[in-house]
Design goal:
Nucleotidyltransferase, domain 5, 10 helices, five-stranded mixed beta sheet, alpha/beta, about 325 residues, globular, 10 strands, about 20% strand
Length: about 325
């Protein structure tokens, strides 16, 4: 079956075509993303109204490009998987309404997909992973630990109590005048810095060792930058120290969750999973305990439609479909 995936939960409009015959296994025929970084850079973050308006312009051309790259037409598509939440409701509605229109016109099934489920299953686009496995989803809007018991069966072990890790990266980058997107800017600057020269405090959630909290590290950086404590300190060292703190706060609970569940495989996924320091540190720490870390290619870490197609594929293969009155849900839970 050829499945068309459509993703528009935030500022990226994406479409992809995957081919699958067996749940959890697929080959990516195409994956196209229309990035809006240039539009939002001047504001230092995503402006929801601008994001949704731009999706109206780009969503159909992105779908056409994905079909062309996959070497197929709409008539070859057997089902559509589209993000219905969580995310920016205006952005979600553009992709969802487009998907519903195509499904009705073509007479094919449509399934609404949880964006987090897409990230959880993104590693399956390139890897065979026996289930159950542990997954750390870390992005601009989410930082959560799950056990993926099977396709469609997920158990959350931990979550952030305040800011997501990616949000902390973006906010600190803005404080440092590094621009948007912040995660990439801090990572590039940190490569030239000494991570041990600036000690940034780490946070743990009392009584909840598998939960995360990043508001404190963001506040600590703001205090250093605004209060003059960072005067004379190289920006490279500040970026490296901050990144080191965030990585420590992600690796610790993840390994604790692996020990608690007995997980041999840890999937690292989400936009912040593109951070090479996090990938290397988590892989090294897991290897010391005889565990393996699996992460998607960088192109499948950030928001993309191939992961949405994968997350909808097992439902489409077993004949499920959603009604055409499904709606977007900004705070959709998994």
């Amino acid at each position: 079956m050829l499945i068309l995936g459509i993703e528009s939960s935030c500022d990226d409009a994406a479409a992809a075509v995957i081919e699958t015959r067996e749940p959890g296994l697929a080959s990516v025929r195409s994956s196209v993303i229309a990035n809006q970084d240039e539009i939002h850079r001047r504001y230092g973050g995503v402006v929801p109204e601008l994001a949704s308006r731009n999706h109206v312009i780009t969503i159909l051309p992105v779908i056409e490009q994905a079909l062309e790259a996959a070497g197929c037409g709409l008539g070859d598509i057997g089902g559509i998987a589209v993000t219905r939440g969580p995310g920016l409701v205006g952005s979600l509605l553009v992709g969802l309404m487009c998907a519903k229109g195509l499904a009705q016109a073509l007479g094919i099934a449509i399934v609404g997909v949880n964006h987090i489920e897409g990230h959880l299953l993104a590693p399956l686009l390139e890897h065979r992973i026996a289930r159950p496995f542990l997954a750390l989803v870390v992005s601009g809007g989410h930082t959560e630990l799950f056990v993926v018991e099977d396709l469609g069966r997920y158990r959350r072990l931990g979550r952030t109590r305040d800011d997501a890790a990616g949000e902390a990266f973006d906010k600190v980058a803005k404080l440092m005048g590094l621009g948007y997107p912040g995660g990439k800017a801090i990572e590039e600057l940190a490569r030239r810095g000494n991570r041990k020269r600036v000690r940034v405090p780490r946070a743990r959630v009392r009584g909840a060792p598998l939960d995360f909290s990043f508001s404190g590290v963001k506040t600590a950086m703001a205090t250093m930058l605004r209060g003059g404590a960072a005067a004379g300190t190289l920006r490279e060292d500040l970026a490296a120290g901050f990144q080191e703190a965030v990585v420590d706060m992600l690796v610790g609970p993840t390994l604790a969750a692996a020990r608690e569940t007995g997980a041999d495989v840890i999937a690292l996924t989400g936009g912040v999973a593109a951070n090479l320091s996090l990938r290397e540190r988590l892989a090294a720490a897991a290897a010391e305990e005889g565990r393996t870390v699996v992460a998607p290619s960088l192109k499948f870490c950030t928001d993309n439609a191939a992961m949405i197609a994968m997350a909808g594929s097992y439902r489409l293969l077993r004949g499920e479909r959603d009604a055409l009155n499904i709606d977007a849900q900004a705070d959709l839970s998994l």
